[in-house]
Amino acid sequence: MVKRVVVGAHYGLKDWVIQRVSAVIMAIYVLAFLVVVLQLGSLGYQDAHQLLSNRFVKVVTLLFLVSLLMHAWIGVRDIFMDYIKPTSLRFFLQASVLIALIGYGAWALLILWS
Amino acid sequence: MKFSIYRFNPDVDEKPYMQDYDIELGPTDRMLLDAILKIKEMDDSLALRKSCREGVCGSDGMNINGKNGLACITPLKDLKEPVVLRPLPGLPVIRDLIVDMGQFFKQYNSIKPYLINDAPPPQKERLQSPEDREELNGLYECVLCACCSTSCPSFWWNPDKFVGPAALLQAYRFIADTRDEATNERLDNLEDPYRLFRCHTIMNCVDVCPKGLNPTKAIGKIKDALLKRSV
Predict the structure, then answer these.
(1) Which of B79, B85, B111, B103 is nearest to B195 (CA)?
(2) In this predicted structure, what is the pLDDT of residue A114?
């Protein structure tokens, strides 16, 4: 292909909003989690197991994980867009990160619901 | 007063180098530009742009002790010695302190920096309410000196794709103008991961603007407008 600057994919607003909303969700979760841990006094395997067997905690934790994965995806993609110039390398890195994040998500689901 | 100035003449020099100058200031030399012109009297090979010498034309933008600014409105008494002068970062150097602003103005042109209104003009001027006019304050004052865009890392990495703070401030100046009818097209043009969303709100632009403007705030308002029409 001839060397031309192509720009104008016309997306990005959704990602920007998701990044902000997910940041708020994570901040609330982390604060709540700290409060719970402080109340428990310790966080051994038994405490964590008991905490995560509560269905509400499970759902909220899942929400946190989804936020974390989406936030990470948008953030890392942004870094690649900023610094990685060759399109093929950028595509490869983005695809790798996406696959890794989906893998982490699946792993987290297994942990939560096993 | 001691100065260290970036020198590069592509016809003669293989590599850029820093040249030291030591000059005696007169009682009327108050701004950095006065001192540079005095240096130029000593060494007329030093090249720089300047015109109005009062912060209105935006010609003498340069990197002063690591921070972009206009030489003509930078007081000498606030500068630490030796004063290190370099061309605006991120743009190709033509010679000494003169940079090629082509990429900067290309981005400026891409936002269509003029009023678009196809309605037949009224007998007198197109009117605005005082409140609507108020919104343009802090936007129209931009002199396009490029101090902000060339202090923005996102503009350094993607000058061909990211519009940059100066042109985004100008874009919002027309989005905010109630006499302009192309708001939707303007927003369509900007809704893009590279053109607008390369801004990561680090606010270097606000820090350096010699006119005290706030491009980050204008960019935030563009994002608000995009959100408003989507939800």
Answers:
(1) B111
(2) 77
Q: Which CATH number fits the domain that encloses residue A86?
A: 1.20.1300.10
Question: How far does B87 lie from chain A, in Å, by closest CA?
Answer: 23
| Residue of A5, A17, A81 lying closest to B193 (CB–CB) | A81
Whether B143 and B73 have beta carbons less than 8 Å apart is answered as no
Identify whether A8 is part of a domain.
no
ipTM: 0.90
Number of structural domains (chain A) is 1
Q: How crowded is residue B185: how many other Cβ atoms within 10 Å of its Cβ?
A: 11
A5 lies in some domain: no
pLDDT at A1: 63
Facing residue for B154 by CB, picked from A8, A16, A82: A82
Could you read off the pLDDT of A5-43 as tens digits, one per residue? Answer: 889 899 999 999 999 999 999 999 999 999 999 998 888
Entry pTM: 0.93
B107 min Cα distance to partner chain A (Å): 12
Which residues constitute the domain of residue A23?
A: 14-113
